Amino acid sequence: MQKEYKDRQFTFIFGSSENKAWTLSLYNAVNGSHYSNPDDIEITTIKEVLYLGMHNDVSFVIDNQLSLYEQQSSYNPNMLLRLLQYVGNIFEAYVKKHRLNKYGETLIKLPVPKFVVFYNGKHDEPDEKFLKLSDAFLADVQADIEVTVKMLNINFGHNKELFKACKPLMEYSWIIEKIREDSKSMSAEEAVNRIISEMPSDFILKSFLEIHQAEVKGMLLTEYNETEAMNLFKEDGKREGKLEGKLEDARKMLDFNMDIATISAVTGLSSSDIAALRC
User: Fold this and answer.
1) In the chain, where the domains are located
2) Higher pLDDT, 74 or 65
3) What does pTM read for this prediction?
């Protein structure tokens, strides 16, 4: 496994400063807006190395809105809790960057958080649905806090209007679908090797992925193997048993280069316990 590739392909395409035009295209497609200046976007993505296991895929501010975008190939109902944690860290960074006084008497104005999950797993999900953090609360009483997430199915063949509005997203979906199909008759590595050469010449992503071919291959293989491993671990009853079994599962997931948040969601272990296994 090539452990130097920490970003996911989705983040690589839509979360980097050099690709703000694609990020803006995705934002416009999701929100039905028509912004045209990519420089209006301020990337605020949290990287794991800075937050000891806390990271997110893509986040940015535009027009006083803070968009947090997550890509999921394995459905995780705990993502709402993670997004709540992410936005707290991002707001803290925002306050520091703009030298705002959260202890003062003047109300601090913050960008409005908007959460979107882009799902491309194998489970049959509708084109769009909304998830709420309150569904996880133990008592059936009115809560004083809520998190609502829009989940969009971006498997190839779904959300055609969204793909029409954002061509890079359609192309990303095509790449993932092509790997899945080719992997039925060849190894994942062989499937990934074929992707760029078989990509249509009019694809916006083609030249970018050709330039970054080594990184792209590492990311795609990591994601594919991670997803397959996740499916195996979910079927393994051992993770539901004793602590020793969960720790062993966590070690194996670290070998697959899975991030700490994902391992925690699967095993139920704390981030600190998982981080200690790296030592």
Assistant:
1) 9-174
2) 65
3) 0.76
